[in-house]
């Protein structure tokens, strides 16, 4: 094993924890009303959905960073990015009239999920670099 191995393990575990958080917040904790509100900028349930993601990220970051302003900033950044990715995807899908029966709907959904996962990769890189 090289000296780099523990750092790589930490990055992978952090990304896995953020992916699990994403599943919980985008799956069981997300309601249809939240999905419906995502297309209206500033709508309460769309903001709530993003806030739940931010809270989930904070819980993950507490494990890695403890209670710190840095953990709070990372959680806030995730919530803000998540909100705008969802808002953008919902509006593109609506404006284009795409439905789940059409390929472009699923391309937009996949692009949305890729952006969320890239956000987690960035958050993990920032976290590991700072520790």
Parts with pLDDT < 50 across at least 5 consecutive residues: none
Oligomer state equals single chain
The beta-strand count equals 0
Distance between the termini: 21 Å
Q: Give a quick account of the main beta sheet: strands, pairing sense, barrel closure.
A: none
Morphology call? globular
Mean pLDDT: 94
SSE pattern: HHHHH
Main features:
81% helix, 131 residues, mainly alpha
Structural description of this entry:
The protein is mainly α. 81% of the residues lie in helices and 0% in strands. Helix 4 (69-96) packs antiparallel against helix 5. The radius of gyration is 16 Å and the shape is globular.
Question: What layout of secondary structure does this protein have?
Answer:
Elements: H1 5-26, H2 32-37, H3 44-65, H4 69-96, H5 103-130
Short overview:
26% of the residues are buried. 81% of the residues lie in helices and 0% in strands. It is built from five helices and no strands.
